[in-house]
Design goal:
two-stranded antiparallel ribbon; mainly alpha; single chain; 12 helices; two-stranded antiparallel sheet; 4 strands
Amino acid sequence: MYDQPAWTVAVFAGLAIAVGYVVGQLPERLNLDHPVSKWYDRAPLLGAGAGAVLLWIVVRLIARDVTVLLVPAVIIGGAVAGTLIGFLFASAARKQARTTTSPKAIVLAAASAAVAAELGWVIFKTLLTSIEWPTAKQRIPFPQIDVVTGSALTVGGVTIQRSAVFTMAALAVCAILLWFFINRTRIGRGMQAVSQDPDTARLMGINVDRIIVVAFALGAVLAAIAGVSQGLQNNNIEFRMGFLAGLKAFTAAVLGGIGNIYGAVVGGLVLGVVEAMATQYIPGQFGGSTWKDAWAFVILILVLVFRPQGLLGARVVDRA
């Protein structure tokens, strides 16, 4: 017996309405994107798809296991109901609409929405419910790589985990590449200009929207590398592991100086050294690994009080 999550009906309904809307406008290539009347033009097709899916939802909520003989009845009934609702929407929006929707398009939208809803349900029941999905609170083992996660290295009596070596190597490579990208490429210099004054940068011919997309993509790539590094160190991953890492990343940025890339690297290294030394050398009940996070934030508070611009200073731009 399968269990139906609460979100499945809403997801299938939205996808089915979208399919009905797209299929309904294909035969006649309707222009439904007029900036003034677009929602009045789209109303017949959206109403047809929504009406068909609405009947399908009602039937499925009443009886999840519909027999094979009743499936065509559900589809045909949904198509008929959707067609009627589509015509009602068409008549209501006719005065404001600029595109006339034909009966053929309304019928096609309703029928395709009903079929898409039923096919989505069949796929869910036969395929998705047979997969054992991990729960959000369950720890998942992170893939182990022999070169990176093998036995620890011993150098001069000091034991170094291979995952820590990978983290430091990734830090060095990412820092060098990021410095080169920011300071030696056109997009990087454009990113600096946009961060200082986006309006003036736009006047100078810089595509500000493109720069913003590149900045978010670059942040996602760096976050992915950091996630892999943390997964290799922890051996397991869970949904809460990124919360404390995000706080410490912000702490490192504040320590080094907000807006200073090199400062963020230095701040992260300082934070790691402080945590390691607090774990090893602070005696008593305030020492050990239990209090390492507390000492990290103590350093943050001290820096904010005595040097709020950060260790290397925030980058401040003087404007004329």
